């Protein structure tokens, strides 16, 4: 059976008890406050706590105790009161993300997002698969089952994360990993003390299981840590995650800007093409590619800067060191291969990924609704023509890349320089680079 619901004191006495979701005890207010709360406040606390049990899985887990994000919850540096309204009651628990308020000092608060790494439905399927893999009843101790797997036993003995330990995992990030990439994962993994070493000597057993589980479920939090926005990568700031949930800088999805004015649409499209260019060519010599795209994968900060909002479909090929190809079909498949996808799902060989892949996907599916019928003739016709060439998958790589370059050249002068684009204003007044 799943473990009983615990308060923080009880959980601390049972560190071996399982789970892999985010564990918190109170969301908006401290129920142990010395002041007597008003009836309306008690109602909000109860509603918030009930929501936490449903959304965060409080009835299943305590394995995340000690992570940075869990500490934030306990210290109430992440607050959820803007989720709740007494007259509305409990909000839906099946949305992909929710707005929250985040602070480092209790003085300055900023909006961030708590996001599901997998849907609620996928969570349920994953739990059933884990239990079924051990011939267990419908409910079971998730952590206990996963600890007994052959893959995790190999992780326990490993001093270094090597390609054989991640073969068979479904993430595009790990389709053909190099040792350099895996060393970067370990060295920059933020949820362990003394991060910085390529060796896992400082990882506890639970640290290893937490990292393995995250890589198996959704590698998006790992990508945010190993390629941080602070170093110029087009990703939002990582604020913490555990199991199936992530807290990161808040962005607005690109789809909300499909009705934007022409100059703003041109700016966003120009940025997006620039992001894809940086993914193809960068100082670290990693080639990033999307396996698929949709508009929700891209977001915009309140300063107008466009970022990758969801990197779960982002694959990485190491051009400097080369990549170790994934194992042949059917090999190294286990329960970790099947947590959020069918066990038979196969990704294409890294040798077959063309330079044009991400451009074809974005030009064919994301940019047309953003740029259609926005500009006067003949500019609109020129944009439409280059978009068509860029999104045509049958064209050779050089032709697609050339079409994308011409499209950027068309869009560049259509952008304006004003405070709406704070990420490049007022620099754009004095330097054509912006």
Automatic annotation (TrEMBL):
Going by the UniProt record, its keywords in alphabetical order are:
Kinase, Secreted, Signal, Transferase
| Gene Ontology molecular function, alphabetical | kinase activity
> What GO cellular component term, any one, is given?
extracellular region
* Main location per the UniProt record: secreted
Domain FAM69 protein-kinase as annotated: residue spans: 212-391
Where is this chain's protein located in or outside the cell? Answer: Secreted
Q: Do you know which InterPro entries this protein is assigned to? A: DIPK2A/B (IPR020519), FAM69_kinase_dom (IPR022049)
Q: Which residues does UniProt assign to the signal peptide?
A: 1-28
Q: In which family does this protein belong, per the annotation?
A: Belongs to the DIPK family.
**PANTHER family, sorted:** DIVERGENT PROTEIN KINASE DOMAIN 2B, GH11358P
Official protein name in the record: Divergent protein kinase domain 2B
């Amino acid at each position: 059976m799943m473990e009983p619901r615990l308060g923080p004191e009880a959980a601390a006495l049972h560190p071996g008890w399982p789970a892999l979701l985010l564990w918190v005890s109170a969301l908006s207010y401290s129920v142990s406050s010395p002041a007597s709360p008003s009836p309306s406040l008690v109602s909000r606390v109860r509603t918030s706590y009930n929501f936490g049990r449903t959304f965060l899985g409080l009835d299943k887990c305590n394995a995340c105790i000690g992570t940075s994000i869990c500490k934030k919850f306990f210290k109430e540096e992440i607050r959820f009161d803007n989720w709740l309204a007494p007259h509305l009651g409990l909000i839906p628990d099946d949305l992909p993300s929710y707005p929250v308020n985040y602070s480092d000092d209790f003085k300055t608060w900023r909006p961030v997002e708590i996001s599901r790494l997998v849907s609620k439905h996928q969570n349920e399927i994953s739990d059933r698969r884990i239990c079924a893999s051990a011939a267990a009843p419908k409910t079971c101790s998730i952590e206990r089952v996963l600890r007994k797997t052959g893959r995790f036993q190999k992780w326990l003995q490993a001093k270094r994360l090597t390609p054989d330990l991640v073969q068979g995992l479904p993430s595009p990030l790990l389709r053909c990993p190099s040792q350099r990439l895996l060393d970067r994962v370990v060295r920059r993994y933020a949820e362990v003390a003394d991060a910085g070493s390529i060796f896992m000597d400082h990882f506890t057993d639970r640290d290893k299981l937490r990292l393995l589980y995250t890589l198996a479920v959704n590698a998006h939090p790992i990508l945010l840590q190993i390629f941080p926005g602070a170093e110029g990568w087009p990703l939002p700031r990582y604020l913490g995650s555990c199991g199936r949930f992530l807290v990161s800088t808040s962005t607005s999805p690109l789809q909300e800007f499909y009705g934007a004015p022409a100059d703003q649409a041109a700016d966003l499209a120009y940025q997006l093409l620039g992001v894809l260019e940086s993914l193809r060519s960068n100082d670290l010599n990693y080639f990033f590619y999307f396996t698929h795209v949709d508009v929700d994968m891209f977001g915009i900060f309140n300063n107008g800067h466009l970022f990758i909002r969801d990197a779960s479909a982002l694959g990485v090929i190491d051009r400097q060191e080369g990549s170790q190809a994934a194992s042949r079909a059917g090999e190294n498949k286990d329960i970790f291969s099947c947590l959020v996808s069918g066990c038979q799902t196969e990704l294409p060989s890294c040798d077959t990924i063309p330079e044009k892949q991400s451009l074809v996907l974005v030009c064919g599916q994301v940019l047309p609704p953003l740029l259609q019928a926005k500009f006067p003739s003949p500019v609109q016709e020129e944009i439409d023509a280059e978009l068509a060439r860029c999104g045509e998958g049958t064209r050779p790589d050089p032709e697609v890349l050339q079409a994308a370059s011409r499209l950027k050249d068309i869009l560049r002068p259509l952008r304006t320089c004003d405070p709406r684009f704070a990420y490049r204003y007022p620099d754009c007044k004095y330097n054509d680079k912006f």
